[in-house]
Each structure stands twice: as structure tokens, then as C-alpha cells.
Amino acid sequence: MIDRDLANLYGVDTKYLTRQVRRNSTRFPADFMFQLISQEVTNLRCHFGTSSWGGRRYLPYAFTEQGVAMLSTVLNSERAIQVNIAIMRAFVKLKQMLASHKELAYKVNELERNTTRHETEIQTIFEVIRQLTEPLPPEELPAEPPKRRIGFHGDP
After folding, report:
1. What are the boundaries of each domain within the chain?
2. For residues 96 and 92, what is the distance between their CA atoms, to the nearest angstrom?
3. pLDDT tens across 78-98, in order?
4. Which of 28, 58, 80, 95 could connect to 33 by a Cys-Cys bridge, CB 3.0–4.6 Å?
5. If we measure between CA atoms, which residue out of 147, 131, 16 comes closest to residue 71?
6. Which residues in the chain come in under a pLDDT of 50?
């Protein structure tokens, strides 16, 4: 999550949040928080637009799940604790949803693989049926048995 969004959730200024993070930098290693590069910020602006007053003067920070959890130790207010609990629950829900999507994707792939195998078998069945329904060429037809004469016949 971006520092601006977290500050909004916690009800503090972004400036205050980043100041607290900088003062407690040992609590935020690189896998908890990192600063976006200018290209990423430009990409975000393309998606969300720019502010009328010119935007930020520094590159924003992005926090991972662990970084968001660590913010509750830096921002010691009742609101910060409640927001942190809600965010942690949202992360857990997100992980559950991703896990169910992986399971669904696996089942779809398995179904597709089975369908492909069945399509091959069905094509083989159709080919055999076509061969059985095509008329045989005259040279492959069996010879007709001689016709029996009807009625009483003497011994020849």
C-alpha cells in the first residue's frame, strides 16, 4: 500500500507517517517498505491523475503486508490499531482468494487437458465410423454365394 493511502486510513498526514517511519527506520527493512522510483510514480499518475496543486515533492513509499503491520508499532493511536487490524484481515482474505483462484486455475487446466485427450479419442471414434459407413470398392466386396434353387430337385 502507498504511504498516502495508509496515512488517510490512519487519519494522519502523510508527512507525519513518513516522519515516524524514517525515525524508526530499523523497523522497516527493504522487504517491509521501499520507495517507488520516478517511473512507477509516473505510471501511478497516469492511472489516478495528478493533483491541482502540483503533487508531492518526494517519491512515495510502498508498504508490504509486514510493513503495514509494523506501522501499528510506530503510530500508537487507537485508530491506528483498529485500522491495522482491519488491514491485516483484508490481507488474509486476499490470500484466501488468491489461493482459491490458484485451485480453480488448476482445475480448469486439468479439465482442458482431459477435454483435449477426449477430443482425440472422439476423433478416432468418428474416423472408425466413417470407415464403416463408406461403401467398399467392388474389388473388396465379398463374392456372392450361389443362389439355391427353390423346389424339389433330384440328385445330380
Report:
1. 3-98
2. 6
3. 888 888 788 888 888 888 887
4. 28
5. 16
6. 51-53
